[in-house]
Amino acid sequence: MKKIFLMLSCSAVILLAQDFNAPMKAYMNELEKEAKAQDASFERFDAKRGESIFTSQHIGKKAQEMSCTTCHKSDLKATGLNVNTNKTIAPLAPSANAQRLTDVEEVQKWLRRNFNDVYNREGSALEKGDVLTYLINQ
Amino acid sequence: MKRIILSCLVLASMSWAKNVPAATDALYQKECASCHFGYQPALLNASGWQKVMGSLKDHFGTDASLSQKEHDAIVTYVTQNAGNSKLTQGNTTMRISQSPYFIKEHRRIPERLIDQPEVKSLSQCAACHTKAEQGDYSERTIVIPNYGRWE
């Protein structure tokens, strides 16, 4: 009986935890290899580091201070707002928007664009992996 | 009778002049209109679109770069449907709002109605042109926030 309970609770945890689909997992593996090649002491991607990448302020492409949350807002389950154009942005949290983080090409495109917008440079493999690890759990 | 027909034709052509075909291309909608108002291709001439599409890495201050495939498809769509009427005549820039006709049509709008948060700038067509999405810019469809109809 205990065993059944244990199995049930384990599968519930698996169902609840957000996970990447197969193509995204392959992309995360690529990023991991790249991160390791750039720094031998790399162990694993970290959601906490990803959160700080996402929420910290930087001088962006427009020479103004901003963060990812300037447009995506602090509550990733809610709708964001493009501050340049007043256009709404669908929620970024996969738990609120199942489309998010499912298409590798889209993910690569937006990481490239938004790192340039907020950091005025492209993100490293470590930074991209960290921020994706943070976002998949939202 | 002739005069009535003539004035009907003149009126009809005047209202048509403020309409452009809607931007119906699915890729254009996804890649461009998800971030900003989906400016119809006819609002800018072909050389203006070439400038826009050639500088997406720094697209009015943000990175809007595309994959080569998306880029080529959108260049084809916007240039094939680019404007070549009085709307776009004499505009040598990549800004729709720099067309002499555009400037003339907006010259009487007080700054305070443009600067307000609901509008922000003349780039936000849909803030006042209630049927801008459909390509209808006729005066009877204009409602300026905190002001009302503009007729």
Structure description:
The complex is a heterodimer of chains A (138) and B (151). Chain A is mainly alpha-helical and 138 residues long. Chain A has one domain: Orthogonal Bundle (Cytochrome Bc1 Complex, Chain D, domain 2), CATH 1.10.760.10. Helices cover 53% and strands 6% of the residues of chain A. Chain A has 6 helices and 4 strands, in the order H-H-H-E-E-H-E-E-H-H. In chain A, the strands form 2 sheets. Chain A has a two-stranded antiparallel sheet. In chain A, a hairpin with a 6-residue loop joins strand 3 (80-81) and strand 4. In chain A, helix 2 packs antiparallel against helix 6. Chain A is globular, with a radius of gyration of 17 Å. In chain B, helix 3 (46-53) runs antiparallel to helix 4 (68-80). Chain B folds into 2 domains: 19-94, no CATH class; 108-151, no CATH class. With 151 residues, chain B is mainly alpha-helical. The longest helix of chain B is centred in the N-terminal third of the chain and has 16 residues, at 2-17. Residues 9-15 of chain B have low confidence and may be disordered. Classes of the chains: A mainly alpha (138), B mainly alpha (151). Chain A binds chain B through residues 61-62, 82, 84-87, 105, 109, 112-114, 116-117, and chain B through 34-37, 57-58, 60-67, 120, 123-124, 127.
